[in-house]
Amino acid sequence: MKAITVGERELREAVTMKEAIDAVRRGFVDLAGGEFEMPTRTALRDGQFLVMSAHHRSTASAMFKTLSVNFERKPAITGTVVWSETGRLDHLVADAGAVTALRTGAVVGVATDLLAPPDAGRLTLIGAGGQAPDQVRAVHAVRPLRQLTVVDADRSRAQALIGALEPELPGVELLTATDAVSAVRRAEIVCCATNATSPLFPESALPAQVHVNAIGAYRPTMRELPDELLASSTVVVDELDAVLEESGEIIHALEAGAITKDALTELGTALTAPTAEYGKRTVFKSVGVAVQDWAIARLLADKFLA
């Protein structure tokens, strides 16, 4: 019996964004079908330490992730993802920061593919931190981009991200901005990847038809979206129990009476619904759940433990 260790470089070489999106999509379908035992994650010190786990019944496999989060350091996320399966003696240990970035991008790819207009190609990304590159890659994988605007209070960070992504985005118009309100006015897709504690823009700043992904706020004290946007949109969430406990946007909107629990649709349900009709504005809110990590860990296990 041995442990196979997979670092960020090995993960990036082994798993494409398309593979990650497909794997996470299958994971959420299985979640909706009752295939997972998945406790709500344990959060300590207001989310600075997180513990997540998921057991996939039909494959008798399990994933356990422990990590620490500190936005004052680089990388902000450190920790380990451990994969084990009753049919295999060996187990896999992967870098939690790399897995988290990839799986967070992948779930946005799944939601964007489901909810964004088929011809959407103008993306505004708010936040140029560690999660940002995979947000762009995931959206581009399902909705080929014509234009990308990266918004960050520190324009040099936005420019650095644009420079890093440019080789992957030939023919895409690449822009930077410091003002989120003006940057979202002509967006067809918006991705929010910040640690904000108050809304990044008012609902009135958005066009009539737009899809918004919000993945940055993962604690009740954090919030990227205004109540009015949630009230006027079709809202899909990664997992109901998770967002009711951890999402500042959802908790605030419910307490304000802007939305009700009945207005929230889980991603797995939305993927398996035979006929889904969505309005002109759609929102995907994710706090991150263990099925996403399980999906990436299973891909790695199939590649490295075969």
What features would you highlight for this structure?
ornithine cyclodeaminase, domain 1, 11 helices, 8-stranded parallel sheet, Rossmann fold, 306 residues, 36% helix, globular
List the helices and strands and how they pair.
Blueprint: E1 3-6, H1 8-14, H2 17-32, E2 36-37, E3 42-44, E4 49-56, E5 61-69, E6 77-85, E7 91-95, H3 96-115, E8 122-126, H4 132-142, E9 147-151, H5 155-165, E10 173-177, H6 180-183, E11 189-192, E12 210-214, H7 227-231, E13 234-237, H8 240-246, H9 248-256, E14 264-266, H10 267-272, E15 281-285, H11 290-304
Helix pairs in contact: 2-3, 2-11, 3-4, 3-11
Low-confidence stretches: none
Distance between the termini: 14 Å
The order of strands across the largest sheet is: 10-9-8-11-12-15-13-14
Find the CATH superfamily of the largest domain.
NAD(P)-binding Rossmann-like Domain
Helix share of residues?
A: 25-40%
What oligomeric assembly is this protein in? single chain
- How many strands in all? 15
Structural class: alpha/beta
Number of helices: 11
Our Rg estimate from Cα atoms comes to 18 Å
- Which CATH architecture of the largest domain would you pick? 3-Layer(aba) Sandwich
* Main β sheet profile: 8 strands, parallel
Helix and strand run = EHHEEEEEEHEHEHEHEEHEHHEHEH
**Which shape, going by the Cα principal axes?**
globular
Task: Tell me the name of the CATH class of the largest domain.
Answer: Alpha Beta
Count of domains:
2
Give the rounded overall mean pLDDT. 94
What is the beta-strand fraction?
Answer: 15-25%
